[in-house]
Give the backbone structure.
Amino acid sequence: QVELVESGGGSVQAGGSLRLSCTISVQFTAGYCMGWFRQSPGKEREGVAGIDSSGETSYADSVKGRFSISVDNAKNTLYLQMNSLKPEDTAMYYCAVEGFSSASMVVAVNGANGFGYWGQGTQVTVSS
């Protein structure tokens, strides 16, 4: 059974930083895609950043240059470093993983539909 546990969310002022972590209970040895998604009330879940087993990354245009995704395979942990946070970044952030290697799937239209393993989410609130 695959379990994902996020941590690191919180409340910050605009311009601040947070680092989200997602610990995954199993290691995907045959290739993977891991990603961060977010969802705010009344909006669809959107892909924020992805990384695959080849090391390729993808980012939503709204976060390019501010967010950075990384993975520590030894710790089975996915990270999202978020800098220069804006009020519009406020959302519930979820990590997800699937056994295909295509980082671009995370930020594709309806990309969330391709992922079967999800964490419970961690809230990020950015005040102006």
Observations:
- Helices lie at 104-107.
